[in-house]
Amino acid sequence: MIAFLRARRTALLAVFMAAELAVLLFVLAERAWPRAVPPPLGWTIYLGSYPWSLPWLASGSEEVGITMAVITAGFGLNVALVTAVAWYAARRARQAGAE
Amino acid sequence: MRAIAARWTPRRLAGIAYLVPVANVAAVWYLLLFVAGRAADAGPTLRAWLVDDPQRAAFRWLAALPMVCGALSVAYLRAPGPKAAIALAALGIAVAAATWRLLDASIAATATLPLLFSVPAAIVEFARRGRTHP
Question: Cα(A85)–Cα(A13) distance, rounded to whole angstroms?
Answer without folding.
Answer: 14
